[in-house]
Structures are given as C-alpha cells and as structure tokens.
Predict the structure.
Amino acid sequence: MNCPQCGATIHNDVLFCPECGARIPTSGQLANAAPPLQVLQGRYELRRRLGAGGMGSVYLATDRRLTTAQWAVKEMSDMSITSPLERQQAQAAFRQEAELLAKLNHPYLPRVTDHFEENGRHYLVMEFVPGENLRDYTNRVGLPRPLHEVLRWTAQICEVLAYLHAQQPPIIFRDLKPTNVMITPDGTIKLVDFGIARLFKPGKERDTQAFGTPGYSAPEQYGRGQTDPRSDIYSLGVLMHHLLTGHDPSTTPFRLPPVNQLNPSVPPYIAAAITRATDNDPAKRFASLIELQQALFGSSNLVNRQAGLPPVAQAARVEAMAPAPAMRAASTGLATAGLWIGIISTVLMVIALGMVGLDPALESNDILAGLGVLIAIGAALFAVISGILSLIALVSPNTAQTVHGRRDAAIGFAASAGAYLLCCVLGFFIA
C-alpha cells in the first residue's frame, strides 16, 4: 500500500510511514472515511452489506452519535410482495422480532437498540456480532468437527435456548441452523435471526403458519402440530448430527442416518442422545433442555434441583460441572490401567505360587522359593495399585458414562482380588 501523505510504498502492517512519519490509518478507518452507502434516521451510516436474503439485507453501520460504536442494521423490504395479506404478515413478523429481542438480555443473544420505518422499508438496529456463522466456518475448516468443539457449542446453545424457553410465555426459536449461529473470535456463540420465533401458547393445536428450514426444522413446524420447546431440541439434535457427521440433513429430512454409522468415533451415549432428540414424535424426545444436558454432559446428580432455581441456572450448573472429553478419556484410561495392572499381578502371583510349590522337588529349593517370595511381594504391590485404580474408576461418574470404562474397572478389581486370594494360598504353602 502507499502512504496517504507522501505516497511512499509501505508495508500493510506499519503504523507510521518510514519516509515522512505520518500515521497510517487502519483499514477500518479507511473504510469509514469512504462515503456511506446510506444514512438512516440522520444517525446510522451503512458502510457495507454483511449478508442478504429474500426479503432484505443486513448492513454494518457506524453511529454518528457514538463514534466508536458499530451496529448491524437489518433491513426488510416488502416491495416484492404483491399480496396485501403476505405483506402485512411480513411486517408483523419483523416487528415481532424487534419486540422479542428488545426485551431479552443474554450473553449469547445480540442486543437490539432500535427499530423504525424509513422510505417504505423497515429497519432493526442490533449489536454487531464479529466473527462468522457456523456454515461459513465449517465450509472453511471442513466437516465433521471434533467432539469437544461440538459439545462446547452445544453447551452454549443449550443455555441460551433454556433462557428463551424460561420466558413467560416461552419463546421458541424454531430456526436453529448453521447460518443462524454466529461464532465470535473468542469462541462464544450468538443466536441471530429471530424472524420466525414465536411465543408458545398452551392449548393451541397447531401453529398458524408453517415456517422453518427443511432438514433442520421439526415435523410439527409443517402443519402437523404446535411447536414447543421440544421443537428446538429437535433442531439442536439435527445441528449436532450435521456437525459430527458432515451429513446434510436437507437431503434426508426427518430421516437422519445413525450417527455411529457415519462417524464411529462418536461415543454411544452422544449418538443415543442425538437419536432421541431428533425423534419425529415429540413425545419421545427429551422433554426439556435440562434433560438433554444431563444426557450429554453428566448424570442427574449434577443438576441442582433446589426449589425456585430457574431452568437457566440449572443449565449453567450442568455445563459448569460437565466432564470435558479429556476428563472422560482420562477416566477410561484409569480403568484400563487398573485392568492391566490387575492381570499382571495375578499372573505374577501364579508364577510365584508355582515356584514355591515346586520347591520340595528341587535341590535348589531355598533359591527358588526365595525368588518366588520376592515375585509374590511385587505381585502384591501391583494388586494394591490395581485395586485402588479400579475402585476409583468404578465410583467415578465419568467412567460410568462409558461401557468400556465400567467393564475394565470391574475386571481390574476382580483381578486384584484374585491376586490376593493366590497370595493367601502362597502363605499357606510357606507356613
């Protein structure tokens, strides 16, 4: 690039020109120096378009009143809608999105600060969320994603959905998909686009309108019933399935292939939770986000069920106490260590018993018997270690979530107990 003061060629990363010493403006400052695309309300300067849909666009905007602030301005144009009824419905949905977001306050939701109409178009001003959405991210880095990454996102999505479902009346998001999940540079997620969110009304047989994204939306969103919190659970299960397998759910709506068939490395309990969450029958799904969190992150004893504790607080407690994948793997490794050390102790004790038992038939009985006793002492120490490791693994809730962990811990404890029994037999021979 060239210095705007003297025209000298300079590197893109320098702050001051080496020739004239002039300060080099940043790319953001250069962008802001260009004329805005449009000025709304005499305040919001639209700088560039962030994205576009069928009925409008989202722009990055600067603020003439708060010069350091950046906003995302969502524009809805109903010019292309010829039906008066459809135009009215679109305007009502846009106003509903503004009103829904304006009353919400959660770290995983963008803040809404303003909405207005100007020149026949409707605008929504909200917090600008830096980063990229899940679709763009996965297109860039590829699928499937590692389990620990998916579970980190899932924990955050569970928390914000639990917050929405805890509102009075509950708010059903209804459009959970990769493009509506933003990932900020620090790894935090934000749910965006509440255009089809709705308030849950008990006793209503079905939704007035069918909305959603094919593949990600629950069957009841297509005229088969009323959406409720279980509809969001279905979409979250589909999203997890997509991230862990790379399978595009829009190619087989309502018929997802088994997770382990596409990615055998996914733990069985995770696959089972996804299968239950994506059942076409709402009655067979998890009844709440809390139940889904228990299935994914820990047993029911991790949930604080104190009277009056709101669901979102229970969700946060589950997330905070949930074992990380590394912890779960370490616990399984503990059980495996107990298994093999127990087997080794048993084998050594059998050898020692044989050597001591043979001593009457050999002339070098003192040497052989003494060596057998030394081996037996070492085997006993191994048995102690095996018993402790296996017992710790058996009582660990992390190991309890894995079939192989429970099996290895049980066999290891049995092997250490067997080694002690052989030690008693050896003592009888020595006596």
Summary: Residues 131 and 254 are 31 Å apart (CA to CA). The chain has 13 helices and eleven strands.
